[in-house]
Amino acid sequence: MFKENPQHPGAAHYMLHAYDDGEHNAQALQAARTYAKIAPASSHALHMPSRVSPARHVGRGRLASDEASWSASVAWVKRTGRTQDQRDFRSLSWLHYEYLQQGRVHEARELEAIVRGADRAVGAGIGSRRSAGAHHVESEIGRGYGPMSLRNELASMRARGRGGEPRFPDG
Predict the structure, then answer these.
(1) Domain assignment of residue 95, given as a range
(2) Quick one: which of 80, 111, 86, 102 has its CA closest to 165?
(3) Is residue 3 part of a domain?
(4) Residue 57 needs a FRET pair 20 to 30 A away by CA distance; which of 5, 27, 96, 134 works?
(5) How far apart are alpha carbons 133 and 163 in whole angstroms?
(6) Strand pairing partners for 145?
(7) Looking at residue 126, what is its pLDDT?
(8) Helix (H, G, I), strand (E, B) or coil at 145
(9) How far is CA 39 from CA 122, 158, 163, 164, in A?
């Protein structure tokens, strides 16, 4: 399908997820890069190359991908008038992991602070769609966000960065 429709975002997206298993990631890299080019304003599309980039590319492919993804998410919230809790915190969590792999502990902790701030605001009902009476808050990729989602991302970040050292192997 992707070969027949190389500019179709759905074909690229499904192709890369079909091979996003750790063993076949190299087969998905072109689809992921294509998807990011097809949908340059989508935080999810920009994040996808980091999912399938080889581990040795943390300083190049993965990091650039997730920095671009987070920036697109922030821009989407601003452009569409959404609230800060609708940013793509999943891409921020991946970026946190990559900073830790590079030993950039201070920058990783700054990202944790962003999530803590969003969690406090959502919990207090400040600047949240929940405070406006909505029952479901969504990010640009359609994933619901609220206190539980934000706390899960924050817990993952804390677990990875406990003691200032990465807890997962680079690889």
Answers:
(1) 58-164
(2) 102
(3) no
(4) 5
(5) 39
(6) 137
(7) 59
(8) strand
(9) 29, 31, 38, 35
Distance CA 14, CA 6 (A): 12
User: CA 48, 74, 8 angle in degrees (round to 5)?
Assistant: 35
Number of domains the chain is built from? 1
Q: Is 104 helix (H, G, I), strand (E, B) or coil?
A: coil
Per-residue confidence (pLDDT) for residue 56, from 0 to 100 = 57
Q: What is the pLDDT of residue 146?
A: 64
The answer to whether the CB of 70 falls within 8 A of the CB of 62 is no
- Distances from the Cα of 134 to the Cα of 29, 51, 63, 94, angstroms: 38, 32, 34, 28
Place of tokens 């601003």: 78
Residue 13 located in a structural domain: no
Given its phi and psi angles, is residue 26 left (phi above 0), alpha (psi -120 to 50 degrees) or beta?
A: alpha
- Judge whether 24 and 36 are in contact, CB under 8 Å: no
And the tokens for 55?
């581990």
Residues of the chain under the 70 pLDDT cut:
54-60, 123-146, 163-171
C-alpha dihedral (70, 82, 80, 94), degrees to nearest 10: 10
